[in-house]
Design a protein that fits this description.
Elements lengths: L1 E11 L3 E7 L1 H6 L5 E6 L10 E9 L2 E7 L3 H7 L6 E8 L10 E6 L3 H14 L3 E7 L17 E5 L7 E2 L2 H8 L2 H4 L3 E5 L2 H5 L1 H4 L7 E4 L15 E3 L5 E3 H4 L2 E3 L6
Parallel strand pairs: 7-8, 7-11, 8-9, 9-10, 11-12
Antiparallel strand pairs: 1-2, 1-6, 2-5, 3-4, 3-6, 4-5, 12-15, 13-14
Organism: Candidatus Caldatribacterium californiense
GO molecular function, one term: 2 iron, 2 sulfur cluster binding
Keywords: 2Fe-2S, Electron transport, FAD, Flavoprotein, Iron, Iron-sulfur, Metal-binding, Transport
Amino acid sequence: MSFARICRKERFGERFVCFELEEGDIASQARPGQFVMVRPGFRVFDPLLPRPFAVLSANDDRFSLLFEVVGKGTELLSYLEVGDVVEVLGPLGRGFSLDAPFGILLAGGRGLVPLVFLAREFEKRGIPFSFFLGVRKRKDLALLRLLEDLPRVLWSCEEAVSGGFCGTVLDLVGKCLERALWQGARIYACGPEGMLRELVTVFPGKEEDIEVALEARMGCGFGVCLGCAIPRRGGGYWHVCSDGPVFRLSEVVL
């Protein structure tokens, strides 16, 4: 574990918090799809274990995280302010492939975090892409601020919103993309498990070309505690922390 200072804090709506952290080694090594384990920089025993968060961005000596406040651990982190210190381990795990001819990025809610990092890397490499974001509630549209400077962003909300598409992100994709448009693309997705399971229906025959970033409860982040096991296609198990968190859809049973 290393220590990182909070340089900037920003809230996105009621439930999401973004930290920009100063830690040069992690910032220089992080790749889209990887994650870090984080806990407050002071001694705390409840909760004892760090929390895993995908990297939102990384450059120079700083990197950013965005997390949703959903329990005691993330609530405790949300109270930290600029100048406070957190303990961080990472970057960890296997990230996204970066050699797509064309990328279709599908995010459900907080699943946009690793895909924002991927989109910015695609921009640097000149790889064309389209970004689709779906949220459940109007208030979560605050996340669109993270996408303001990206091209070709489309969004949906499951609550009716003026000027927006009402439905899930996969409903939106079905309306916007014909088979000819996604046939030669690589598809990247992160979001609720139910959304990821539906990808085989929306993109039939594309399991080898769909990469999914999975979320899981984990205690260590590097394969020791075995707390993040998921079924492996063909038998056995993967560990999300060390074998993933990015997998081809053909590799896992969701």
